[in-house]
Amino acid sequence: MSKQVWQAQDGELFDSEEECLLHERASLFLVDMNHSESDRNERRWGMQKNFSRFFLEGFQRKEDFWKYADSFRILADILDGKRLDLPRNNPPS
Description:
Elements (H helix, E strand, L loop, with lengths): L5 E2 L5 E2 L2 H17 L4 H8 L5 H7 L4 H6 L1 H11 L14
Antiparallel strand pairs: 1-2
């Protein structure tokens, strides 16, 4: 008997639909943070301004790391599937 698998848009296979959806949301987040419209996408995901720059380039100073603690908490909730309200289609200006 075969077991059911779920395939994400990028081709990755998962044992459950929940794992697949979490992967797709995380992938969407990473694409958005690496996009040229980073300001808009930070608002879309509820992140603090310039979080994507530090996220991609690295947090070189501990002060910068702590400054973005709220964004890290949001990111953890997104990855855990606790922020289904994100991303917003029309982020606030």
